[in-house]
């Protein structure tokens, strides 16, 4: 929930720069393009603009977080058997928003003087997902160099 709130806030600061015309495709640099599918309403992945993709993604994550069967809020109610796979999918998709921001909008982040906040948020996110092996290494490839730099300073 905290990672969702942070990335939602960070993306919110650059939405005026992430438009249908500036980002007609959801990507993280020239080698990584993401197509949206939620498995329910959109079963076959569709190519869409970054703002549309991120809107789909954030709405989908919010729906997962609000689902009492997936994220029970009452004490003593167990998490479902598929909780870990849903959580991994949420984190994998949230990573894509970080990757998009770093690759396509870092100049805007710098102009807004929020790179320290973005970097701190991303570092916390990466350390968490690496500690618990929540995102496959191949999915992290778009920000591999940054992740290596973040890790090397602390080891």
From TrEMBL:
Binding site for Zn(2+): 18, 23, 100, 105
Pfam families for the chain: Mob1_phocein (PF03637)
Keyword terms of this UniProt record: Kinase, Metal-binding, Transferase, Zinc
GO molecular function, one term: kinase activity
Entry-linked SMART domains: Mob1_phocein
Keyword Transferase included in the entry's annotation: yes
Stated name of the protein: MOB1A kinase
Organism: Smithornis capensis
Protein's gene: Mob1a
């Amino acid at each position: 929930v905290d990672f969702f709130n942070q990335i939602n806030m960070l993306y919110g600061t650059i939405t005026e720069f992430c438009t249908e015309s500036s980002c007609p495709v959801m990507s993280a640099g020239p080698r990584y393009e993401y197509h949206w599918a939620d498995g329910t309403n959109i079963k076959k992945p569709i190519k869409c603009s970054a703002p549309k993709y991120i809107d789909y993604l954030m709405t989908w994550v919010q729906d997962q977080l609000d689902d009492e069967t997936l994220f029970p809020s009452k004490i003593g109610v167990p998490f479902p058997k598929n909780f870990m796979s849903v959580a991994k999918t949420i984190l994998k998709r949230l990573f894509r928003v970080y990757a998009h921001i770093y690759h396509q909008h870092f100049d805007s982040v710098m102009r807004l003087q929020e790179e320290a906040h973005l970097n701190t948020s991303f570092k916390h996110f990466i350390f968490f997902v690496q500690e618990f092996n929540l995102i496959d290494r191949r999915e992290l490839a778009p920000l591999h160099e940054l992740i290596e730099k973040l890790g090397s300073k602390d080891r």
